[in-house]
Structures are given as C-alpha cells and as structure tokens.
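tokens incoming
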C-alpha cells in the first residue's frame, strides 16, 4: 500500500512539474504579443518598442531597454500621429498601430502617400441596429472595416480606423469626449485625404427592403462623387441593389474637412441581407467594393 501511495505521489509530482514547465515556457510567449509598457518599464520589450519608434521616424533615443522621458515623448508623438489615444502607455492599441504603420511604410502601391480614415459605426455600449435574430450592426461594421483596411493598405495607403475594437471612439483618451466628435477629430487631426464611415441599415416598416445606400456631405461635390463611387462599387461587388445616394445630415460627414461618405451595407431588418452579412466571403466582397470605390474616386 505504501509503495502504491509513493508511486502516486511521484506521478503527481511529475505531472505538476510538467505543468510548471509548460507555464514557464508558454506564458512569456503569449505575454510578449501585447506587453503593456509605460514609463519605468525596462527590458527587451522596451528595446523593441524603441527600435519600432525609430523605424517609424519618432526618435526615442538609444534602444537601451529603459522607458524614460525621451521614449515616452516619442511614444506620445507616435500615438498622436497614428490617431489613437495619447497617453504615453504602449498597450494593445499602440502595438496594433505600430504593426500597421511599419507594415505600410515598407509597402508600395497606387495609394502610397494617401491617408484614409475608416470609421466603423457605433461600438461599445452603442450596438447600432439589432436584427430580429440578435445580430449587432457594430460587429458587422468593424469586421468589414478591417477588411477595407487590408485592401487599402495592400495598395499602399496609410489607413487609420476610428476604433479597432468594441469601444466608443474617444473612450480611451483619458478625458470624456463625445464619440461623434472623436471620430471627426481623428480624421481632421490627421489631415486625411478621405473619410469613410461604414454602417448597416434598418427599416422595420418593411422587412423586404434590401440593398446599399450612400450618403455624402451636403453641398460637397467631391463628397458626392466619393459616395457615388463607393456605393456603386459596393453594390456591384456584393450583388446588393443600389437604392440611392443622397446628402446625409450626419455629424461625421458635416464636421470633417476632407471628402466624406457614409455607406450602408445591407439591412438588418432583412433576413436575406443578415444571412449574407454573417458570411466572411460576403464581408470580403463588400469591403473590396468599398476599397474599389475609394480607388475610383482617387483616380487610381
């Protein structure tokens, strides 16, 4: 009996040792993907951040692995340039911006030199339209926006998104700001060439209504041409009917300083549209249409 107990204890110790070794070797790898760095941090992750900032054109001083005042100042300048919250702390959002901007800086294509702001509508506590089957507009908007970003960056554009996750733009700035003001501010502060807001539509009075709609800044011929190009291309790429392109009384269209358009992809009150919006291939097609419309407007 004692031998059995001893064997069991030995087996238990071996299993526990294996688990500890697994955690030791696996956790640092996972943590490295989104290391949170701030003033006072040290180590290889800080040195890597300093190298990235230097490559992006923001001098943090020597890559010595010490997060001091010079590195913080460089990081704040980078965050302002990237159109994200300026707090001097390098978290997940900043790492994403570094990956995006360094990737674009090494690329080339017909849109190289163009700054395009993509605005996934709603986010955070604001779900947007909700389908009868529980689908949330904000989720479709963000998924399509990421795909648009990919297509545009493959063509060389610098793409800034007003949100990169499920939160309200501006909610990570450290001070309260209206999310609509934040969306427009991100575009204006970057002196963007184009602003495009992505949404889904809804019309509860008639669930049969389906299709694509485009909106533009009132009185802006350039915005009208942008909305027409995007809506037309999105309709063709997605095989959804083009309903109309018209001026829109939307804050993000009327408080941005560059050509601005808002595209509504499908209706969350139409079951067939919702079924399509759930499909990855359809989101790709719709995003490709939006990107093609932007390139058509720019003559590329």
């Amino acid at each position: 009996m004692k031998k059995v107990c001893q064997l069991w204890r030995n087996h238990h110790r071996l299993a526990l040792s294996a688990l500890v070794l697994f955690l030791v070797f696996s956790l640092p790898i996972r943590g490295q993907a989104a290391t949170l760095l701030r003033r006072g941090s040290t180590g290889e992750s800080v040195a890597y951040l300093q190298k990235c900032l230097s490559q992006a054109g923001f001098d943090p001083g020597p890559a010595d692995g010490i997060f001091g005042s010079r590195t913080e100042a460089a990081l704040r300048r980078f965050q302002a340039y990237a159109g994200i919250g300026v707090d001097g702390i390098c978290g997940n959002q900043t790492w994403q911006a570094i990956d995006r901007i360094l990737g674009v800086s090494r690329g080339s294509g017909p849109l190289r030199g163009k700054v395009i702001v993509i605005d996934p509508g709603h986010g955070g506590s604001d779900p947007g339209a909700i389908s009868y089957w529980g689908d949330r507009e904000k989720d479709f908007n963000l998924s399509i926006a990421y795909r648009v970003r990919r297509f545009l960056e493959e063509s060389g554009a610098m793409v800034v998104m007003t949100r990169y996750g499920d939160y309200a733009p501006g909610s990570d700035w450290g001070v309260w700001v209206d999310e609509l003001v934040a969306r427009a501010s991100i575009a204006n502060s970057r002196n963007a060439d184009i602003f495009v807001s992505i949404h889904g539509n809804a019309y509860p009075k008639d669930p049969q209504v389906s299709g694509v709609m485009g909106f533009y800044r009132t009185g802006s011929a350039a915005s009208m041409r942008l909305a027409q190009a995007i809506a037309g291309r999105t309709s063709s790429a997605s095989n959804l009917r083009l309903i109309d392109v018209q001026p829109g009384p939307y804050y993000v269209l009327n408080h941005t300083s560059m050509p601005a358009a808002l595209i509504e992809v499908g209706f969350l009150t139409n079951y067939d549209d919702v079924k399509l919006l759930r499909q990855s291939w359809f989101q790709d097609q719709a995003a490709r249409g939006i990107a093609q419309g932007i390139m058509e407007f720019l003559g590329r």
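note: Strands lie at 115-120, 158-161, 194-201, 212-216, 242-247, 260-267.
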